[in-house]
Description:
Keywords: Disulfide bond, Glycoprotein, Heparin-binding, Repeat, Secreted, Sensory transduction, Signal, Wnt signaling pathway. The chain has 243 residues and is α+β, with helices and mostly antiparallel strands. Among the domains are: 7-65, Hormone Receptor, Insulin-like Growth Factor Receptor 1, Chain A domain 2, CATH 2.10.220; 76-112, no CATH class; 118-168, TSP-1 type 1 repeat (Single Sheet). Helices cover 20% and strands 33% of the residues. It contains 2 helices and 17 strands. The protein has helices spanning 179-222, 232-235; strands spanning 5-6, 13-17, 21-25, 30-36, 39-45, 52-56, 61-65, 70-75, 78-82, 87-89, 92-94, 101-104, 109-112, 117-118, 138-144, 147-149, 162-168. The chain has a 3-stranded antiparallel beta sheet with strand order 1-2-3, with no helix packed on it. A two-stranded antiparallel sheet has the order 4-5. β8 and β9 (78-82) form a beta hairpin. It is elongated, with a radius of gyration of 57 Å.
Amino acid sequence: VHPNVSQGCQGGCATCSDYNGCLSCKPRLFFVLERIGMKQIGVCLSSCPSGYYGTRYPDINKCAKCKADCDTCFTRNFCTKCKSGFYLYSGKCLEKCPDGLEANNHTMECASIVHCEASEWSPWSPCTKKGKTCGFKRGNEVRVREIVQHPSARGNPCPATSESRKCIVQRKRCQKEGKGKKNREEKRKKSNKDESKETRQESTGRAARRQNREQRENNNKTQPKKRKAPNKEQNLAPVDTAH
């Protein structure tokens, strides 16, 4: 029997005491004992605080303490977060991770070791020397690959992502910069010039032929038509042969 049991409590308490605080909680709330110095006070909470886990019973819902190395837990034997210096693995808090696993200092968990993975090599680049592909016989060609999976702390390191090797090409002269463009421009101008010349010649020929035709027509119009000479035989008088 608790002294000074009261039914008119506050803070979610169903029954309470001036000396012990909450003695029972309203439905769905969890009862937990908080230590204040040498004294324990009962409180009613909607969820259990850090370091405790909740259990529900027909008559009362209680918050029970997790293990000493566990910060939060689902049950007493299943931890969800460990205290500093411990690593979580399968619901347990360990000072050292098992073989084949490594400690993740960011999540404070034991995780699988991840090794580096790289993609396939790309094709070899064209043979070059000082950034040029002509004007030399021996140069270098390069191929690259990408890292598709970075390693964890204890994983195998990543290999080189580029390779270079010597190469030999058929020596050829480098075309001067702008020379090819200049030659094409000159050819285009020459072609246009030849086309223009042919067009002018054709136009001149047509104009000359038209002028000759017009001149002949004018000459025909200005010259008088020639009269036909009379037939001498027709103008002769008949000869009298009677005498």
